[in-house]
Amino acid sequence: MKSLVTFGALLALSAPTLAATDTRMVCQHEGSVRLIEVIYSGDYDVPCDVRYTKDDGVQVLWSAAFEVGYCEAQAAAFVEKQRAWGWSCDAEAIDDAQTSAVDEAQVSNTDNGLMADLPESN
User: Fold this and answer.
1) 2-14 and 70-84 helices cross at what angle (nearest 10)?
2) Where is the composition biased (Polar residues) (predicted)?
3) 3-state secondary structure 80-102
4) I want to staple 27 with a disulfide (CB 3.0 to 4.6 A). Which of 21, 68, 73, 89 is the partner?
5) 3-state SS of the chain: helix, strand, coil percent to 5?
6) Terminal CA-CA length for the chain
7) Which residue has the higher pLDDT, 27 or 98?
């Protein structure tokens, strides 16, 4: 719970600023490591992605184009699920150099993600 508060505080500190700061949770369990990251595409809180990295690659679990706070809330809830499954998670800030090091070709989209906050068109 303390790490969730830390993660939430880290996200809250980045939210009101013009330059959104990417954040990362590093989760570990029995020698395995998972990364849960909130990545901003520009200088603002949206658009954003929640990226999940594990041994078999990187996935975008959720994205938001307009809804501020959506990525942060989804990431925080997912971190809590990881903890419930026995993972230990700690927050860290990441810079643009680390973010750009992710090969975009490895990022795959899941059914419940991309543009989840957009209204459905008829």
Assistant:
1) 170
2) 100-112
3) HHHHHCCCEEEEEECCHHHHHCC
4) 89
5) 30, 35, 40
6) 42
7) 27
Whether the Cβ atoms of residue 72 and residue 38 lie closer than 8 Å to each other: yes
Two structure tokens written together for 117:
């906050």
CA dist., res. 38 & res. 41, Å (int): 10
Q: How far apart are CA 43 and CA 66, in angstroms?
A: 14
* H helices present in 17-116, as ranges: 70-84, 96-100
Q: Are strands 57-64 and 107-109 parallel, antiparallel or unpaired?
A: parallel
Number of helices and strands in the chain (H, E): 3, 6
Q: Give the sheet arrangement for strand 107-109, strand by strand.
A: 88-93, 23-29, 32-40, 48-54, 57-64, 107-109
